[in-house]
């Protein structure tokens, strides 16, 4: 049953979104992707919209409109469908959840910087009830490193390394797969470039710290009047 509100589909009702894929359906869809069927991506998006709904409900409330979060999350879902790599052997739902969440958090960070939301505002549903926005906007080193390895910050890293010595630039390009290179482990980079693994680790630390600093909300709390 489609739930209507003021003659419009009510996005706040989970019943208006198709059910999530079963394990068998997702496996079949992935096989279609492996065979090069681009149309299956539309199916993946449609049958993953409920995840957008669940995550939007978690983050709504920090003066952030639920419908806006649904729109932003849907963009993340579409990006996930376009960049999903079957060879990584990760479930589409898992990959999509990361992309959806990242897109919503970037939206909330922009909203804060534009003074549209307060870091002290309480948010969401489920396990986020009663938490403040600043708690969910805090990004850990491990998450940043994982996202660097997925090349989510590729453009940011290219800008950062412009100010670094040539040798360190080469380490970063090899470590995170920039300039057409394949991403490598610290140990592999050290061996190829003839440096110590400790050296590679220090350069990696610089990148993580700079990315983290660029993502952290200002310490000063803004409260919209």
UniProtKB/TrEMBL annotation:
<comment type="similarity">
    <text>Belongs to the sigma-70 factor family.</text>
</comment>
<dbReference type="GO" id="GO:0003677">
    <property type="term" value="F:DNA binding"/>
</dbReference>
<dbReference type="InterPro" id="IPR014284">
    <property type="entry name" value="RNA_pol_sigma-70_dom"/>
</dbReference>
<dbReference type="InterPro" id="IPR036388">
    <property type="entry name" value="WH-like_DNA-bd_sf"/>
</dbReference>
<keyword id="KW-0731">Sigma factor</keyword>
<keyword id="KW-0805">Transcription regulation</keyword>
<feature type="domain" description="RNA polymerase sigma-70 region 2">
    <location>
        <begin position="44"/>
        <end position="113"/>
    </location>
</feature>
<keyword id="KW-0238">DNA-binding</keyword>
<dbReference type="Pfam" id="PF04542">
    <property type="entry name" value="Sigma70_r2"/>
</dbReference>
<dbReference type="InterPro" id="IPR000943">
    <property type="entry name" value="RNA_pol_sigma70"/>
</dbReference>
<dbReference type="InterPro" id="IPR050813">
    <property type="entry name" value="Sigma-70_Factor"/>
</dbReference>
<dbReference type="InterPro" id="IPR013325">
    <property type="entry name" value="RNA_pol_sigma_r2"/>
</dbReference>
<keyword id="KW-0804">Transcription</keyword>
<dbReference type="InterPro" id="IPR013324">
    <property type="entry name" value="RNA_pol_sigma_r3/r4-like"/>
</dbReference>
<dbReference type="InterPro" id="IPR007627">
    <property type="entry name" value="RNA_pol_sigma70_r2"/>
</dbReference>
<protein>
    <submittedName>
        <fullName>RNA polymerase sporulation specific sigma factor SigE</fullName>
    </submittedName>
</protein>
<dbReference type="GO" id="GO:0006352">
    <property type="term" value="P:DNA-templated transcription initiation"/>
</dbReference>
<dbReference type="InterPro" id="IPR007630">
    <property type="entry name" value="RNA_pol_sigma70_r4"/>
</dbReference>
<dbReference type="Pfam" id="PF04545">
    <property type="entry name" value="Sigma70_r4"/>
</dbReference>
<feature type="domain" description="RNA polymerase sigma-70 region 4">
    <location>
        <begin position="161"/>
        <end position="213"/>
    </location>
</feature>
<dbReference type="GO" id="GO:0016987">
    <property type="term" value="F:sigma factor activity"/>
</dbReference>
């Amino acid at each position: 049953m489609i739930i209507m509100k003021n003659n419009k589909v009510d996005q706040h009702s989970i019943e208006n979104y198709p059910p999530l894929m079963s394990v068998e359906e997702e496996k079949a869809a992935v096989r279609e992707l492996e065979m090069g069927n681009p149309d299956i991506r539309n199916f993946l998006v449609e049958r993953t919209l409920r995840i957008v709904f669940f995550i939007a409900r978690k983050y709504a409330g920090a003066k952030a409109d639920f419908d806006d979060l649904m729109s932003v999350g849907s963009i993340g879902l579409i990006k996930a469908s376009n960049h999903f790599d079957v060879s990584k052997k990760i479930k589409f739902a898992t990959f999509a959840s990361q992309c959806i969440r990242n897109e919503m958090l970037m939206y909330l960070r922009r909203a804060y910087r534009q003074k549209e939301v307060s870091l002290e505002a309480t948010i969401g549903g489920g396990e986020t009830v009663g938490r403040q926005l600043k708690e969910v906007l805090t990004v850990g080193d491990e998450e940043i490193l994982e996202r660097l390895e997925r090349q989510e910050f590729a453009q940011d890293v290219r800008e950062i390394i412009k100010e670094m010595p040539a040798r360190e630039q080469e380490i970063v390009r090899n470590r995170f797969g920039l300039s057409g290179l394949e991403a490598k482990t610290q140990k592999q980079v050290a061996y190829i470039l003839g440096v110590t693994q400790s050296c590679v680790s220090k350069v990696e630390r610089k990148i993580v710290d700079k990315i983290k600093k660029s993502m952290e909300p200002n310490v000063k709390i803004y409260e919209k009047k």
